[in-house]
Amino acid sequence: MLRLRDPIRLIPLLFLGFIAVGTAVLSLPFATADGSRAPLLTALFTATSAISVTGLIVEDTPVYWSIFGQTVVMILFQIGGFGIMTAATLFGLIAGRGFGLRDRMATQVERNRLETGDAASVLKLVFKITVFVELVVALILATRFATTYGMGLPEAAWHGLFHSVSAFNNAGFSSFSDSVMGFQTDAIVLGPIMISVILTALGFPVMQDLRRHKLHWRQWSLHTKITVAGTLALLLFGLVATLAMEWSNPDTLGPMGVGAKLLNAAFHSVMPRTAGFNSLDMGSFHDETIMANYFLMFVGGGSAGTAGGIKVTTFFVLFAIVLSEILGRRDAGLFQRRFGRAIERQALSVTVLAASLVFAATIYIASVSSLPLDDILFECISAFSTVGLSTGITAKLPPDALVALCLLMFVGRVGTITVATALALGGRERPYRYPEENPIVG
């Protein structure tokens, strides 16, 4: 019997509920700029993309949706970014009942083993960081828009707030038709967005650890060490790859000066980590740059934050396992700590499930459309990893393909392990084990 009180099973239902409400509201006539009702699939796709903090769109956000509709989209990705799992814990605390030990441990599947009983402090940290970062970034952006780009105060405040909330939640939605391509040489606009994205992509457990132990590396948890070191490595890889492959591309970095090239390459190295803003034309990237983005998007950001993908820790756990096999070591681990078998199996399960879903969706969409396969694969990884970057094919996809992307965004945000656990309603530990026998591998 399904126990709605169990947050690991409540999460998918809450996400579906918010998507349904968002779809209904976006279907109202005054949600669109021209006062007509948005088609059901358009409203559904937009609501799913917003609540999953993805950023893929089938209609130009500032042109198609009214201010009311854009506000609804912003509220949806604020809810999605805050996290339904966090909300489920909050509901239990407000009700004064709390979750039992088993329930609390269940919520830690994607919250990366937070200490039992730590929910209240995490919630306080989430609220404080959310309010502080969003207000500060909104203020910086609004001031810049008003003083440099000739916008009136209300307009500048709106664009500043929208981009601040979108950046903090790694949503990638923009109130400008060309995302942030109009600010390619403006570090005061791109910089705060980058910092906000990086901060929240680390995940709240890392933020809490950094708050407690500051820069004292030895006191950091293994999760924090892997996430911070892995994030820096991936950002450096993205920066170097973008510079090397796009330096002379006349449609991207080619016409820019050295400073602008560094700024935009740095900005782009951050965005595939599930943020979705673009200061460069994605459709003009070289094929090798697109392939590098496959990898960055699939890995994603840190656990228990607003980022998607299989997560940084998952990738580096698998990397450590492969390295230990190559070196003939008995145990896999990093930073003088070994991993438990359960974590290794979880990392492998997440990666295989994610790759299988992306592969299946790519094959299906390729079968119902005539678009290039590399663009379809990019779109599917972007949807599953809740990135929101696109080579420009989203609006060209047939209805069946858009529904497939909706499913990818939903599963990508809820989490493959969460979905699998929610479906395994009657799963129990077997009271016996079969005899061991090993097949030939490789």
TrEMBL record:
<keyword id="KW-0472">Membrane</keyword>
<feature type="transmembrane region" description="Helical">
    <location>
        <begin position="187"/>
        <end position="206"/>
    </location>
</feature>
<feature type="transmembrane region" description="Helical">
    <location>
        <begin position="125"/>
        <end position="146"/>
    </location>
</feature>
<keyword id="KW-1003">Cell membrane</keyword>
<feature type="transmembrane region" description="Helical">
    <location>
        <begin position="12"/>
        <end position="31"/>
    </location>
</feature>
<protein>
    <submittedName>
        <fullName>TrkH family potassium uptake protein</fullName>
    </submittedName>
</protein>
<dbReference type="InterPro" id="IPR003445">
    <property type="entry name" value="Cat_transpt"/>
</dbReference>
<keyword id="KW-1133">Transmembrane helix</keyword>
<feature type="transmembrane region" description="Helical">
    <location>
        <begin position="294"/>
        <end position="327"/>
    </location>
</feature>
<feature type="transmembrane region" description="Helical">
    <location>
        <begin position="38"/>
        <end position="58"/>
    </location>
</feature>
<dbReference type="Pfam" id="PF02386">
    <property type="entry name" value="TrkH"/>
</dbReference>
<keyword id="KW-0813">Transport</keyword>
<keyword id="KW-0406">Ion transport</keyword>
<keyword id="KW-0812">Transmembrane</keyword>
<feature type="transmembrane region" description="Helical">
    <location>
        <begin position="401"/>
        <end position="425"/>
    </location>
</feature>
<feature type="transmembrane region" description="Helical">
    <location>
        <begin position="226"/>
        <end position="245"/>
    </location>
</feature>
<feature type="transmembrane region" description="Helical">
    <location>
        <begin position="347"/>
        <end position="367"/>
    </location>
</feature>
<feature type="transmembrane region" description="Helical">
    <location>
        <begin position="64"/>
        <end position="95"/>
    </location>
</feature>
